[in-house]
Specification:
Radius of gyration: 18 Å
Number of helices: 8
Bound molecules: S-adenosylmethionine
Strand order of the largest sheet: 3-2-1-4-5-7-6
Helix content: 25-40%
Number of strands: 7
Length: about 240
Amino acid sequence: MPGAVRIVAGAGNAQFRQGVMGKKKFNKAWLDRHLSDPYVKQAQQRGYRSRGAFKLIEIDDRDQLVRPGIRVVDLGSTPGAWSQVLRERMTDRSGAFQGRIIALDLLPMEPIPGVEFLLGDFREAEVLARLEQALDGHRVDLIVSDMAPNLSGVAAADAARMSDLIELALDFAVHHLKADGSLLVKCFHGSGYSQLVRRFKEVFEQVEPRKPKASRDESAETYLLGRRLKGAASAGNPS
Ligand SMILES: C[S@@+](CC[C@H](N)C(=O)[O-])C[C@H]1O[C@@H](n2cnc3c(N)ncnc32)[C@H](O)[C@@H]1O
């Protein structure tokens, strides 16, 4: 999956090209596009672990979700670009990191100072229990989920696996968000999208799609942002 390529800071294009072509996983057109992508270059310059950082940056510049002092869960966090952005934006003017970031992925993630990382599959009860234990009964202000299954190429199966992940993230939000909290999830604009929007509208007061510029036009990837749990969904969730 092209999106799974990790930027190696400092690796030159020739070295990168040789590495990925050597693995015969990527075609030339994809590779050329990747290497001339301005977001890839900017990510390298700014030390982000992937170009995906700019998706969260653009959404947050508009929606102001992240600030020092909040508690955040970052689902599907590896390689860690969103966690890097969260950490930057939760650092106050004096340079002190304020708040809590708990990141989770089924793949390992290189450590980021201040980010607590849990390794495991979000679909497994034992992993969910570890995440809940880490929260220690505290509600969270923000849940971001960039989780995406490895695509099999069978559209119906891939869509079903993606909607399972989103459904789980939504359920987690209902149980663990503060009443005025927000959930941002990656989804695919295709079959099942309008049903997903309906589900979000059952749970949140405000539901908006977001397609940041860093998300390629030809990709069905989009993001849904839900803000403020509806009364019934937030019963027992203080602000
Ligand atoms: C697009 S990447 C996330 C990129 C990340 N937001 C960043 O900025 O670096 C999607 C991630 O979702 C993870 N993922 C997919 N299914 C998962 C699951 N069931 N549980 C936990 N993580 C999952 C993958 O391992 C992958 O690292």
